[in-house]
Please model this.
Amino acid sequence: QVQLVESGGGSVQPGGSLRLSCKASGFTSTYRVNWYRQILGKRRELVATISGTGVSRVSLGAVQGRFTISRDDSKNTAYLQMNDLKSEETAVYYCTSGDFWGQGTQVTVSS
Model:
């Protein structure tokens, strides 16, 4: 059974950092992982992607230079490192692979 479980969300002040984790299970081969976010009242947007071979791409211009995607296949885990967070980036962050989605993790950026 394929499963993706996010963790690492929480509350942080503007300018702070968080690292989100996405633990995968049930995959039989190396897989691409994507991070999306959904800000309340807005459409879900693709933040970053990492291929099965570790090629990464930050898709969202607003976070380039501040967010980094990575993976550790020995732990079946992908990460989203988020630095210099802004209040408008309060959102639910999801990891996905193929048709599978995690449950999401809430990130709140507030002073």
Q: What stands out?
A: The CA atoms of residues 3 and 25 lie 5 Å apart.
